[in-house]
Design a protein that fits this description.
The chain is an alpha+beta fold. It has eleven helices and ten strands. The structure holds adenosine-5'-triphosphate (ATP) and magnesium ion (MG). The site of magnesium ion (MG) has 4 residues, from helix 10.
Length: 355
C-alpha cells in the first residue's frame, strides 16, 4: 500500500509531500524493484511525473542507471537495514547521496540528497591544493635557479677579480722595500683573503657546487659536514643503489637537497641529538633520503612550516614524507620521490631550472 493512500499516516504524508529532498518508495514485485510512490520533490528533480513511474520497474524508468542505485534498494530490503551510496547520476548530472531505509511493510524508502555543490567545492579545493603543491615545488626549483645564477656571478666575476687583486697585492708586497707601507699592504692582503673566504662560503650557501658537479650524495655529505659538525653532532651517510645507474632528475635532486637541509637544521634546532644517519636508497623508480637522529623525538610536529612544506612539495612530485618518532627515541624522517618527473609535469617545462 502506498503511503499516499493511507489516511492513518496523514502527518507523514505531509512530510513526504513537502520535503525538499526527492523520496521514492520501492517494493519487490515478481523479483523486480518496482516504484510504489514518489514525492513532488522527486518529480521536480528527476523530471518525471508520479503517474508515469508508479507501478513501473526501476530499470524501465532508469535504464541507464548504474547498478549501485538499485543495489542499495535490494540490500536494504534483503537485509532490512539502512544502506547508502553516493555518485553522479548519469541521468540528471547531479552528484547525489542516496539513503535507502526499510519501511513497513517490505518496502524501501530512498531519499536523495543533492551533494553537487559540496562535491564541486570539494573538487575545487582538491584542485587548488594540488596547484599550491605544484607552485611550492616550482618555487623551490626557480629559487634554486636564481641562487645558482647569483652564485655563478659571484664566482666568475667577483671571485675572479678578488683573486687578481690578491695576486697583485702579493706582488706589491714582494717588490715593496719601504717599511712604512708593509703593514698596510699586509692588512690589505689579510682583508682580501677574508673577503675571498666570505665570498666562497656565500657561494656555497647560495648553490652548493657539489650538487651540480658531483651529484646528490657528495652534496649531502658536504651539507651534513657544514651543518652538523659545528654543533659536535657526528654523522654518516649510507647509500644503496648507485647514483649513475638510478639517475634522478636534477630538479628532484635540488628539491631533495633543500628538504634534507631543512631536516638537518631541524635536528640541530630541536633534537639535542649526538649522531645522525643519512640514508640514501635508489631503485628503478624511486629515490629515498632518510634523516635519522638519536635525539629526544618529536613532541609536536605541527608548530612550524618546515615539515609541512616538505610534505606538500613531495606530494606534488608524487612522493611522500614519513615521520617515525617515539619520545626519547629520536626521529626518522623518510622522504620518497620518483626519480623522474612525470612527462608533462608542470616542473618539467621549466627547462632552465634543472641546471
Ligand atoms: N629532529 C627533530 N627532533 C625533535 N623535534 C623535532 C625534530 N624535527 C622537528 N621537530 C619538532 O617538529 C616541529 C615542526 O618542525 P618544522 O620544521 O615543521 O617547524 P620548525 O622547525 O619549528 O619551524 P620552521 O621550520 O618553520 O622554521 C618543531 O617545532 C619541533 O618541535
Ligand atoms: Mg624546521
Amino acid at each position: 500500500m502506498a503511503i499516499s493512500d493511507s489516511g492513518k499516516h496523514f502527518s507523514y504524508k505531509i512530510l513526504f509531500e513537502r520535503v525538499f529532498d526527492p523520496i521514492a518508495i520501492h517494493k519487490i514485485i515478481d523479483g523486480n524493484i518496482t516504484f510504489v510512490d514518489v514525492n513532488p520533490a522527486y518529480e521536480r528533480v528527476m523530471k518525471l511525473s508520479r503517474d508515469n513511474v508508479i507501478g513501473r520497474k526501476f530499470h524501465d524508468v532508469w535504464p541507464n542507471a548504474e547498478s549501485k542505485w538499485s543495489d542499495i534498494i535490494r540490500d536494504c530490503l534483503a537485509q532490512n537495514r539502512t544502506v547508502h551510496c553516493v555518485g553522479e547520476s548519469l541521468d540528471t548530472g547531479s552528484y547525489l547521496e542516496a539513503i535507502a531505509f526499510p519501511i513497513p511493510t517490505d518496502m524501501a524508502a530512498v531519499i536523495f540528497l543533492d551533494r553537487t555543490k559540496l562535491k564541486r567545492s570539494e573538487d575545487d579545493r582538491r584542485k587548488y591544493q594540488a596547484q599550491l603543491r605544484e607552485l611550492a615545488a616550482r618555487l623551490t626549483i626557480s629559487e634554486e635557479d636564481t641562487r645558482r645564477g647569483i652564485a655563478e656571478e659571484l664566482h666568475d666575476r667577483i671571485g675572479y677579480d678578488l683573486i687578481c687583486q690578491l695576486r697583485m697585492l702579493r706582488e706589491l708586497e714582494a717588490r715593496n722595500d719601504t717599511e712604512i707601507l708593509r703593514p698596510q699592504i699586509q692588512s690589505l692582503i689579510a682583508n682580501t683573503e677574508r673577503i675571498i673566504a666570505g665570498n666562497r662560503s656565500l657561494i656555497f650557501e647560495l648553490s652548493p657546487p657539489a650538487l651540480k658537479e658531483a651529484g646528490l650524495n657528495p652534496a649531502l655529505e658536504e651539507l651534513a659536514q657544514n651543518i652538523l659538525e659545528p654543533h659536535g653532532i657526528s654523522w654518516h651517510v649510507i647509500t644503496k643503489g648507485s647514483e649513475d645507474e638510478y639517475k634522478a632528475d636534477d630538479s628532484v635532486c635540488v628539491l631533495l637537497y633543500r628538504m634534507a637541509r631543512e631536516l638537518l637544521i631541524n635536528t640541530v634546532k630541536h633534537s639535542g641529538a649526538s649522531a645522525v644517519s643519512i640514508i640514501i636508497n635508489r631503485n628503478h623508480d624511486n629515490i629515498t633520503v632518510a634523516v635519522e637522529d638519536n635525539g629526544k623525538g618529536i613532541q609536536d610536529s605541527n608548530k612550524g612550516f618546515g615539515l609541512f612544506s616538505i610534505k606538500e612539495r613531495l606530494l606534488a612530485l608524487g612522493g611522500s614524507l614519513k615521520i617515525i618518532s617515539e619520545p626519547g627515541e629520536g626521529v626518522m624522517a623518510v622522504m620518497t620521490c620518483p626519480l623522474k618527473m612525470k612527462k608533462g609535469d608542470i616542473l618539467h617545462d621549466n627547462k632552465n631550472t634543472s641546471g
